[in-house]
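Hey all, sorry for the wall of text incoming. These are the two entities for the joint prediction.
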Amino acid sequence: MLRKLLPALLALFIHLPAPAAEALPASEDPVLEARVDELGHLLRCLVCQNQTIADSHAELAIDLKNEIREMMRAGQSNQEIIDFMVARYGDFVLYKPQVKSTTWLLWFGPGVLLVLGLGTLFYKLRRRVTQAPAAELTPEQKRQAYSLLEQADGGDGK
Amino acid sequence: MTRFLWPLAIFLALVGFLAVGLNLNPREVPSPLIDKPAPQFSLPVLHRPDMTLSRDELKGQVWLLNVWASWCVSCRQEHPLLVALAKSGVVPIYGLNYKDQRAAGLQWLSEHGDPYTASIMDADGRIGIEYGVYGVPETFVIDKQGIIRHKHIGPITPQALQEKLLPMVRELNAS
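and here's what came out:
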């Protein structure tokens, strides 16, 4: 029963990439469109927050792409356009957050946690290794143990 | 004993962080425009498209800029509050009719009441971009010098009005 169901269950978890309907570029200039798309991947769509404006079809994302297109036509650099967006929508508009004092925890927190975790692990393992010899018996205890074992053997009547 | 308390403490700290995170509203992105001059605009007035209204004409008074649209569902939620606020005459409300059709906007106001001293038409949403608008309705509190002092994202609630917007308007009017 389960063996028959398993492939079907597994199939549920496999996501095949669905062919996405792409919006037609609004201009005929492929170089410009490539630049708009490239920059669009760096900016967050604030309506559908986990998408970039390049991926989003929200109305605001389309407006912002038009804005970028026009700014590029006017000869503005990528950095100028990014600064324009940050000045209006804040740092959150950057899909990849900047590295600065308020985002250090965000950037380096996971690394710090990893180092702490590995450190703790090594510390514990080493302590276990150094503790192991301490578990050895003193000669006195050994003698007691042997005599106990001998008694047990005798008790079995062998 | 501390051996067992440590994981518990770490777990509780984690729960604390997650609880705070759950209660944050991700829709409310702090605006970088607070304490900055309100972006310039000069747009046609909804009721009189032959006339334009610009930011500088509104200097010298504390005013609210409310971004609204006839297609905006949650605008209906806050609208009665705005109508009541306009009646009280505490602060003039100017409307930014965002990405809307003129006829639809006029129709909407005649249906739901018009709290706006004037509404201006931002048909292509360009001024919306200047103001960092991403979720209608939004409301800005702008002081006598034309500086943005506060931005409320989403429909205004009675609580937000009483506890934040009105005290702010009073304070700015006094200064």
